[in-house]
Amino acid sequence: MSETANLLANLKGRMRLDEPMARHVSWRAGGVAKVFYQPASVPDLCMFLRSRPADEPILFVGLGSNLLVRDGGFEGSVVFTHHALTGIRQEGGSQLRPTFHVAAGVPAPHLARHVAKHGGAGAEWMCGVPGTIGGALAMNAGCYGGETWNHVIAAETVDRNGNVRLRTPNEYNVGYRHVALKESLEEWFISGVFVFERGEEAPAMRRMKKLLSQRVESQPLNVPNAGSVFRNPPGDFAARLIESCALKGVNIGGAQVSPKHANFIVNTGGASAQDIESLVDLVQTTVRLRTGVDLVREVRIVGKAK
User: How many CA atoms are closer than 13 Å to the CA of 116, on its beta-carbon side?
Assistant: First the structure.
């Protein structure tokens, strides 16, 4: 038996072929993944990565809230971390600054509530992040004045050879919705260590309730969407620029610029990935031509056109 065959035979996670990614992204649209894998543990994930061909594209997905897979599909392996890489563990930390080790597949709102219930404060903004900790680490997710990497003191990564490393923040270039390892290496986040201030549960829960109420009032949460499509340019807001170009409510096929929030593109029903990407391009082009501002996409688009 070859080494690859031996690795595959010993995998403990769930593998599926030609998996429709519309089931796993919040836009509820898009093509299939050639290989879909939900690891049983970190060692199992390492074994899976070692089993893949060296030139095969690999994509890590949490809640799929910042992702679009084109209709022609993704010719590689997708690693699904939600319900796979789980768990929050409180570490020693100081008496004033509680510390938490958080697996990549944990939804960010779960961490916000966990911190509040275990003597911490300052994670409340995470209740508005519609993704996992792995995704938050990868893009420095933020909202309501908070940003992920303001709280990170260490991050655990894995490479395609299954090597696990513990990284520190100074090994990364971190900016607004941007995180990149200073070394030219391909790695993915499998956990992070976060530090917060000491606090009390009741005030933190009240703040989260208020933030969630604001989110419901201002965002189109009742229809499939991927959150903010574009980054806010310096000193301005993407939504304001899009609205100033009279793009609210504009649609291509089943994709529509939300009438409720201009920086959201929603699937009104039956939208293809091509509908969504075409509308993203239309918004970007229109805003550039009319305002001179070149909006930068916050969402990731992968795969091939049909």
Answer: 20
